[in-house]
Amino acid sequence: MKYNPLLLSTCAVLLLTAGCAVGPDYQRPDAPMAEAFKPTPEWKIAEPVDDVPKGEWWKIYRDPVLEELMAQVAPNNQNIAIYVARVRQAQALSKGADAARYPQLGFNGSGGRTASGVGTGNLVNPDGSLNDGAIGNNVNFQLQVGWDADLWGKLRRDVESKSAGYVASVADLENAKLSMQVQLAQAYFTIRSLDSLQVLLENTTAQNKRSVDITRNAFEVGVKARQDLINAMMQYKSVQAQQVDVGVNRAAQEAIIATLIGKPAPDFIIKFNPLPGRANIAVPVVPAGLPSDLLERRPDIAAAERRMASANAQIGYQMAAFYPALTLNTGGNNIGYMGSSFSHLFTGPFLFWGIGPNLALTLLDFGARSAKVEQARGVYDENVATYRQTVLTALQEVETQLAALRVLEQEASVQDEASDLADKSVTIALNRYQAGIAGYTDVVVAVNSALTNQQKSIDIAKQRLNASVLLIKALGGGWDQPVKPGQVSPVSPLSDRQNQQPAKNEQSEQRPGGQG
Question: pTM for this structure?
Answer without folding.
Answer: 0.78
